[in-house]
User: Fold this.
Amino acid sequence: MSKLPEKMPGMPEADTEPIRIEPRGAEPRGAETRGAERRDGSRRTRRGWLVAGVAAVTVVATALGVAACSGDSGEGGSEGAPPVAPAASEFWVDPSSSAARQIEQWRSEGRTEDAAALEKIARQPLAIWPTGETGGVEGEVAGVVSQARAAGRTPVLTAYNIPNRDCGQYSSGGAGDEGAYREWLSAFARGMGGTRSVVVLEPDALPQTLTNCEGQGEQEGREELLAEAVRTLTGAGGEVYIDAGNPGFVTDIGKLADGLRKAGVADAAGFALNVANFMETEQVEAYGNRVSDQLGGARYVIDTSRNGNGTYNGSEQPTWCNPPGRALGTPPTRDTGSPQVAAFLWVKEPGDSDGDCRGAPSAGEFWPQYALDLARNTPGA
Assistant:
């Protein structure tokens, strides 16, 4: 697959007209070997509202202790109040998320009912996936952290730039080598600046290593590199959770627990499950508790962004790629009802495409119609 696109301010949005969800015929490479077990392979680096010039200013402002780029409300960006009032949450809500921008466009076009439905997504805190460019990541992270601090909320970040990312498959890319990755991590950490931030570390990296890149070769030294990342980001204020896949990825609990130990889970806040997948919370929690027990009670977070209706069990393939009939899951919260589950998070932004299947745009691009369907399939406000 091609490298994920990075959306910058000023770039055109994906088609905002309703798109019929239907198979396109050809499946993405390797999909037949993954089926329902395959978590989505599409993740974009979130550039959000930050441009290079603003990033540079933000770094300076952050160093001076100034809450840069925040509006009078403490939630909005430099252009004023957000289009949607953020939900009451510990976690920071991006006023310039894809869903928020889509709402503004639909309102201007008179699509008020669709805009109102999409508020179910835009008002919730989402994880930010910073750029993989070493020269830009410090400013971007600093900008996010600065806005979150000004709002009195905790930012959620996803570090996703490990070398040979996604084993060169759907979300290929990442740093060129271990040295480049360490430089990127250092810049990421400088952007955090000691501010407490939740960080989901390298989705799929450890599970792919433990499954030999799903049959495509070993990833030498991956656990040690993850352990370094844990130490670097924890030292910068990170509440770090090492991604551990989902119940259908690494089925050998002992093997996964051993891999997490080697990847530095003892120095981390815990591990993460179900990132970008659709598995029901109850199923994921049963699996997570077993892993936690192997690790002496290590805590974990669950991505609930799109698991409201669970996994897709229909006949259309691939089952993991933009499956129809899905719904939003439990909104992000620390109130999980379980001492082992540290939080429910929305790590995957609902509406981001899993790949060019079923009429969708490329992996990582925001697909307004799919986001709208997720919202409409979710009861309540």
Q: What stands out?
A: Confidence is low (pLDDT under 50) at residues 1-79.
